[in-house]
Amino acid sequence: MRHPLVPLGALAGVALLTSGCSTGPSPAAGDHAAASPAAASPVAAKAPAEVGANELGQVPVLMYHQLTETPASVYDRTPADFRAELERLARENYVPVSARDFQTGRIDIPAGTHPVVLTFDDSTNSQVRLNPDGTPAPETAVAILTETAKKYPAFKAVATFFVNADAFSATGSAKALTWLKEHGHEVANHTGRHENLRSLDQAGAARAISAGQRAIQKAVPGTQVNSLALPFGAMPQPADIATRGTDYRYDGVYLVGANPSVSPFAKAFTPGAIPRIRSAGPKDEDAEFGSSRWLDKLAAGKDRYVSDGDPNTVAFPSASQNELSPAFAKRARPY
User: Fold this and answer.
1) What pTM value is reported for the model?
2) Contact 272, 257 (CB under 8 A)
């Protein structure tokens, strides 16, 4: 159940896809709709120039699978590695947002900070395992994320879990997914049995996606599922099967990729094919495409998303005006 590492630029046959939502119609292909203005932020906005705001900048969407003391795959990380990466993100002023909020442009974080999307695939027990009293078991991803947020109060314990049927077997789907939902995390779809959607015909791919959707809603009735991660990064054919079916609509579809995502406010944003970055150390296999190297590049460059603290505006240097999606023209705050 592991994904091949493929740089986004090397992905073939990925078109601009329709953005969807849990209810109601989706906008036309390539025309991602402006999100409704967010509620007033408790953190005061600042003049964009004061914080170097760039809400058209790049956003890392990080991808995790298994935490283990004995990594056997490039998709495995030790609990210590995971903790160190979260603490690095906190020290570098990243604030986690869910995939659901990222893909719809509902990014409400303090001025001068950067959004990061923490995503987990395959619903492994190392991600979520609860003690009999309902608290996270030590050294699980949710325990480490919760501990990091307590140590760094500005760092939110928010993540998106892309789950399969029978998720988190050591705890049980209903208990684990309910805990995630109650603690502010997003529960999202990774198909019923981790099927390679590209290998299935149109009807088979739709069934696989629907099976994951139904499993979540059976475990936690009433849950809206807004996001899908493609197993193996494999896009179904036709590609719009990933965003809509008879019983599902998704605002965002996530690839494996190997690079940051553009801003959801940018013309180039493709909600049906959002790239992610595999969590990796600086000397790991394919480290060039991993999180350590990319975080270095983002810190050193000028293309990182920087918030102005106002979730109702899109602030950016005026030289980037042509990068703004027309859907967000009324919220533009160039400087």
Assistant:
1) 0.90
2) no
Kindly state the tokens that stand for 92. Answer: 């570098």
What's the token pair of residue 262? Answer: 């553009």
Q: What does 222-246 look like in DSSP terms, one character per residue?
A: T----EEE-GGGPPPSSGGGGTB-S
List, for the chain, all residue ranges whose pLDDT scores fall below the cut of 50. 1-31, 39-42
Domain coverage including residue 249: 8-334
pLDDT, residue 6, reads 46
122 in a structural domain = yes
The CATH number assigned to the domain holding 298 equals 3.20.20.370
Residue 238 lies in a domain: yes
Whether 2 is in a domain gets the answer no
Tell me if 211 sits within 8 A of 165, measured CB to CB.
yes
Total tally of structural domains belonging to the chain:
1
Cα–Cα distance for residue pair 29/24, rounded to 1 Å: 15
pLDDT at 46: 85
Distance from the first to the final alpha carbon of the chain: 46
Contact, 3 vs 256, CB < 8 A? Answer: yes
Q: What are phi and psi of 274, to 5 degrees?
A: -95, 125
